[in-house]
Design brief:
Helix content is 20%, strand content 38%. Helix 1 (17-34) packs across helix 2 (50-57). The chain is of the alpha/beta class and 178 residues long. The longest helix has 18 residues, at 17-34. The chain is built from 3 helices and 10 strands, in the order ββαβαβββαββββ. The strands form 2 sheets. A 6-stranded mixed β-sheet has the order 5-4-3-6-7-8, sandwiched between helices. The two termini are 16 Å apart. The structure holds inosinic acid and magnesium ion. Magnesium ion binds next to loops.
């Protein structure tokens, strides 16, 4: 087990990249089957989902497009509950099947905000695909169709996920030590 320090917090290895990539591939294969013959748009929520999007898309064999949006709700290891749109939705999503790509779904505030915004763009359908899911924290009814890994209410970093903007470059996933 490896320990790392980011600012005032200590983290230990939790999921190795190799294991994570295998599970991302399995999720990609489900999407390939479910969207066969279609041309979905993967709407990546920045910043955290950039690495997941890259790994997932390498395993997608559909004709597909990519779009980006940026929302922010977190401060340190706590959500603020207020989701701020920082980069809006700029591509034409009218009539398109949109798959939201998230790094992690916790309370679901980010997903809720997107479900409020997206209908204005008249997509044909909206689905969610997240790398991590905290089911014990999730408070909403919107279906999270695809999640790669389900975890308890613990704070993790790596593979795009940050603590105060640090740790996004880590290949493996690390969990906070109390
Ligand atoms: P939600 O809006 O409450 O679902 O929280 C989702 C957002 O909070 C994610 O996109 C992350 O930016 C952040 N977040 C939630 N849990 C973690 C975590 O364990 N590590 C790093 N960021 C997290
Ligand atoms: Mg995020």
């Amino acid at each position: 087990m490896k320990h790392i320090k980011i600012q005032d917090k200590t983290f230990r290895t939790y999921i190795e990249e190799k294991v994570l990539l295998e599970q991302i591939k399995a999720t990609a294969q489900r999407i390939n089957t479910d969207f066969k013959g279609q041309k979905p748009v993967f709407l990546c929520t920045l910043k955290g989902a950039f690495m997941f999007l890259a790994d997932l898309l390498k395993e997608i064999d559909l004709d597909c497009e990519v779009s980006f949006t940026r929302l922010s709700s977190y401060d340190g290891t706590q959500t603020t509950g207020k989701v701020k749109p920082i980069i809006g939705i700029n591509d034409n999503l009218k009539g398109r099947r949109v798959i939201i790509i998230e790094d992690i779904v916790e309370n679901g505030f980010t997903i809720k905000k997107l479900y409020e915004e997206l209908p204005k763009h008249q997509p044909e359908s909206i689905d969610v695909c997240t790398m991590f899911f905290k089911p014990k924290a999730y408070k909403l009814d919107f279906d999270i169709k695809y999640h790669v890994v389900s975890i308890d209410n613990e704070f993790i970093v790596g593979h795009g996920l940050d603590y105060n903007e640090l740790g996004r470059n880590l290949k493996d996933i690390y969990i906070i030590e109390e």
